[in-house]
Specification:
The protein is of the alpha+beta class. The strands form 6 sheets. A 7-stranded mixed beta sheet has the order 5-6-7-8-9-10-11, sandwiched between helices.
Length: about 260
């Protein structure tokens, strides 16, 4: 399956999952807590089921591809470490935004190859905005109720900004003193006189970097691999980078599928 055809299939799955999420979003949202105290809703489950069903019948280069989902059972490391390719999905990234009726939650689908994000798709159901791409194919942004991929804009966009201001993405709930100090040092290193922080939820912060709306997104707390994989591919397709906090490669399919921070720029 060529990449264009693949993205058409993935976008249809993501939109269907997004529609299911929106049916829950429009009513009263009941929240459970998982073992790690993170929130879980009926929307997470509905999106997971739709994506698993859609990807389960999809092949890439004539091969079936195993799937890892945040809401599914994580295969034992001894099994998955042998995989050349696998899907890595977060059916509803930004559940806290979802619960609080903010429009920044996303559906994330990534195709991993040799433990790196090959292709990724990030969909915002409320805004009906889709980001899709990868390092080998480029990245695009589509929007609207019909989401015609042929009308998508290639990223990054040409956005005029003051080079003396460092534009950074930041989370509402995960900022720290280290985040503040690191940005101040980065602004000084770049010769910027001030910092403008754009607050956003979920993997949308990666997409703001891919667009060129912000310059950088540092994160120093733990995240799971499915939180970043799709947006990581989107960022790389836009010619940007995502590294660990020390500038090394952000690794995937580790024994424990967790990152201890990253920098997107």
């Amino acid at each position: 399956m060529e990449e264009k055809e693949l993205f058409c299939g993935l976008s249809a799955i993501a939109v269907k999952a997004g529609d299911a999420i929106m049916r829950v979003y429009s009513g009263e949202i009941e929240v459970e807590l998982k073992d790690d105290n993170s929130p879980l809703t009926a929307a997470d489950r509905a999106s997971h089921d739709i994506i698993m069903d859609g990807l389960g019948s999809m092949k890439y280069r004539d091969s079936s591809v195993p799937i890892i989902s945040e809401e599914g059972e994580i295969p034992h490391y001894g099994v998955r470490r042998k995989w050349k390719r696998f899907w890595l999905i977060d059916p509803l990234d930004g559940t806290r935004e979802f619960v609080n009726k903010r429009d920044e939650f996303t559906v994330n689908i990534a195709l991993m190859e040799n433990n790196k994000p090959l292709l990724g798709l990030v969909y915002l159901p409320v805004r009906k905005v889709l980001y899709f791409g990868g390092a080998s194919v480029g990245t695009w942004r589509a929007e609207g109720s019909d989401l015609k991929l042929e009308n998508a804009e290639k990223l990054p966009l040409k956005i005029e900004h003051d080079p003396g201001v460092l534009r950074a993405a930041g989370s509402r709930s995960h900022r720290s003193e280290k985040y503040k100090n690191w940005l101040e040092a980065e602004a000084e290193r770049r010769g910027c006189r001030s910092i403008d922080i754009v607050t956003a939820g979920s993997s949308l912060k990666f997409c703001l970097v891919a667009e060129g709306a912000v310059d950088i997104y540092p994160r120093f707390g733990p995240t799971m691999e499915w939180d970043t994989a799709a947006a990581h591919a989107v960022v790389e397709g836009a010619g940007k980078r995502c590294t660990d906090p020390d500038g090394g490669s952000l690794l995937y399919n580790k024994k424990v599928m967790r990152h201890e921070g990253f920098i997107v720029f």
